[in-house]
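Re: nicotinamide-adenine-dinucleotide structure - here you go.
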Amino acid sequence: MSSRLFDLSDDVAVVIGGTGALGGGMAQALAEAGAKVAILGRNAERGEERVRAIEAAGGKGLFVSADAMSCESLAAARDAIQSKLGTISVLVNAAGGNKPDATLIPGADFCKLSRTAWNEVFDLNLVGGVLLPSQVFGEAMLAAEKGSIINIASMSGMIPLSRVVAYSAAKAAVINLTMFLAREWATRGIRVNAISPGFFPADQNRKLLFNEDGSYSVRGQQIIGHTPMARFGKAEELSGAVVWLASQRAASFVTGQNIVVDGGFSAVTI
Ligand SMILES: NC(=O)c1ccc[n+]([C@@H]2O[C@H](COP(=O)([O-])OP(=O)(O)OC[C@H]3O[C@@H](n4cnc5c(N)ncnc54)[C@H](O)[C@@H]3O)[C@@H](O)[C@H]2O)c1
């Protein structure tokens, strides 16, 4: 077995949403494996903070301000990264999340679900989350005939969880688009895979999982009760999956797959 199987020192990785909890953790892992890492997002303070953490650990990081919902913004970021760090070979699409208005709280009527909120969730997770970055960065990868695209889907895209209806449907579409692109670009040097996390505390879901005093909410308890490992995930527990999928040596024949990291949640029915 090659000792360089998980060595990314020839790679330039872009993590969109690297300003967030899971994207930030994955950016850190890619940098620790040797990749030069560009963090793309709208929050410069959090992006720069992550770059400092990467560099404190001996890695190379760069924050580039960009809006995943705008092709122009993504194209400007792509060109800036390629001129500063070199040819981009890894793209992690980690911008995404849910919106309260697109969630059915107990007793709410599905027939009254807001179309605007539904569209916003699809736009964020599917359009800005995967479609536009794959077009903009995919163009550069196709030109180089080399690349690994890793879309952050969700376990709720496989099993429709209660309440988060638009989010689950959008993430199901993310998994489907991942498989489509995998086939489309399989002979062009680009692998396209997804990672589906289970429940990982982050800003976007903390209120759902915990009470103000830090104890588990009722929903949090239900989730823990259904998770064979009886706990939530930690961001660093996605590191192995992202480094493996990023590595052309380790995952050269892996494309169109959805890797689930959920403490066993999706493996059990009761
Ligand atoms: N935390 C979980 O339990 C969990 C579970 C399954 C899937 N996910 C998915 O993982 C991904 C990361 O989520 P997270 O939990 O770290 O949430 P997060 O809110 O901490 O991170 C999401 C990041 O995306 C950024 N972002 C949002 N819109 C953007 C835009 N238009 N342009 C640029 N950046 C934008 C946000 O600013 C934020 O930094 C999301 O796709 C989410 O749906 C999370």
